[in-house]
Structures are given as structure tokens and as C-alpha cells.
## 1
Amino acid sequence: MELERITLFVEGKLGQDTTGHDLNHVRRVENVALKIAEQEKMALEEITIIRAAVLLHDVIDEKLFDDVEKAKQEVRSILQESGATAEEIDIIEDTIENMSYSKNLTKKRKLTKIGKVVQDADRIDAIGAIGIARTFYYGGSKGHAMYDETAPIQAEDLDEKSYRKSTNVVNHFYEKLLRLEDSMNTETGKKLAKSRTEFMKKYLEQLAREIRGEV
């Protein structure tokens, strides 16, 4: 599989992104995915599929692209042009179509071992210091309130529709980011998520004090 060809395709799709789903995000996710794959003792051919899935995981995201079905067709085409086998294409498509947080709100989607590694790596980049930066960056790009008087949506009331309607940046930490630690699939993912989640909790405590004017 020609990863260079896939990389050029992704650069054309995400090279001008200003929502936090840019090429730097892709590179960070790849670095984490490779670290997890090493700990999981994944085979070289599995790592190639992981890298391809990481490259492509945001190019069918409905937050970024209006015509998702067209985007899926383009993904299949670039994979075929890059020499991916039918089995590799199936694994990559299954991964990027089922790994998102919103798709797993009401029912956890089953992923392959490769899919679990990619999902963990992507979620790791949503938390910690970089996660905080990306959250406010994305919220600002969409015109969302930094914070307001609305309460976070409770877990039992959160589904894909209500999740998409949330427009409060601070609430997003409670509706998604602080919950990601418990969703990790791999031991490496769990360890990374734990430290990053603790960092976010401390940040939110400080933020709340500053909002109240206590410090």
C-alpha cells in the first residue's frame, strides 16, 4: 500500500483545516498509534493498515465535510489506487466509519484490533493539554460559547443528535473528554489517558475558580 499517495490525498483534504483536525493532528495520532502498536506487538503489515486508517480517519467526518457518502467513495478510490487489498480496505473503512465518539454513544461498535489501536490514539489526542487547546480552538471556529449557564448533557440523555447540538465548550469536557479514559481499549491507551485526564481535571478546577473570580 502506497502511504505516500494516501498522504498527498489527505493533505489536499485537511491541509487548510482550522478546526483542530489538521495535518498536525494526524501526525500526533500516528505517533501515539505507533507507540500503542509497538506495545501490542502488532505485525508490520498491521502497522501499515493502522497508519493508513490514521491518515484517513477525519476525511469522512461529517463535522468537516458536507457530503459524507462522496467522501467515503473517495476514500475507497484512493485506497484502490494505492494498492490496498480488498481486506485492507474493509478494515480501514470499518475503522474510520465506526471509531468516532458520537457513533458509540448509544451502542459500542465492535472494532478489529487495528481499529481499537486507531480509536485509542485518536482519543488520546482529544485529551490532555493538546486536547484542551483543540477543544477551545474547535469551539471558536464554530462560534460556540466558551461557557454559559447551561448544564452538561447527562450521560443517559446523550445521543448522536443531542451531542451534535451542544455548543458550550466547557460542557464538552463533561459530555465527552472526561469520559474517554474509561473507553480505552489498550493498556497503553489507558495509561496515557489517565495522566491526561488528571491534567484536564486540574485545569477545569482552576478555570472554574477564575470564572468565579476567586483567584
## 2
Amino acid sequence: MDKPSIAIIVLAAGASIRLGAPKQLLPYNGISLLRRTVETVLLSEAKSVHVVFGFEAEKMKLEIANLPVDIVVNPNWQRGISTSIRSGIQSLGKNIDAVIIVLCDQLKLSTDILNTLIDTYTSTRVPIVTCKYAGTVGVPALFDRCIFPELLSLEGDLGAKKIIERHMKERIEIDFLGGEIDIDTITDQR
């Protein structure tokens, strides 16, 4: 079986309204959440990395200007996360077999988790490989190309969770200890 071509989409377009400041630029262990996430995904076995910006896109681009990623600007970012997922999927080349969707505020994200998603997909070719944590499933999650039409049909401020739930019998879950730890408020940084 040929090794699949897998891309990663980092969703970093939101305005962080609950936080009151762009969470992508918040410092964590000496670097911004955005840069930390992008550096982590670049160390994975993925073929390419696509970072979707929206809110203050020019400022965000500067944060990762020297990193080898494809920048995608979502002009409709205010309409919700679905528009960023669509922008990311539309930026992929035809040779991509699967994509991993990643958020930039999961503090425990690691290259190991990403490579486990990739390795699980490579050995099984199931349509979805998702992480499980804190009694739920979610991102980061890998989606085979056959799921792209469903991702492209998302609307509003809804991510891919409904798609993951709909494919309960066609997915594999991997453990992501601490996957539920993210930043939504200033107190979450502590």
C-alpha cells in the first residue's frame, strides 16, 4: 500500500471574542500559541501545512512568516469556523489523500498525536481517525478525501464534530490525554 499524502490545516482565523484578544498571539512557554502549533505540526509526517487566517490576518502572518506553510486567508471568517474549514479544504491540491484539522489553542497538541493519526490512517485507511478525550471525540481529527464533500458542506459556526459523530462505525479513535485543555478565557492561560 502506498504511503498516503496527508495535509494539515491549522484553523487560526477567529477573533477570540470570549477571550477579548487574539488567542493565536497569546504567549505560552515563550512563544505564541500560533507559532507553537505551527512548529509542532511541521515536525509531523504530514506532506504540507495550510494555516487559515481571518481576523487580523496580516498580523498573524508575521508571526509565522519564516515557516514553510501555505497561508490561506478566509475572507468570510466572521461567518464561523465552517468557512475556515472550507477555505482550508479548497486550498488543498488534488494529490492529497487525507487532511488533519487542528486548532491552535490545544495546549497538549504534540507531534506524537499527529503522527499517531497519520499512522493509524495509513495502516487502516478508515475515513476518519479522531482523538478522544474527556468523554468526547474531536480535533485533531483526520479525514479521508471521501469526507471532503461533507466538510465543504458545513455551515455557520459548526466544526466537524457532527461529521465525526455521523461516521461512528467508520472511524477509529485514538487517546489524546489532555486534549480538552484549550484557551478560551484569560484565566485559561494560568
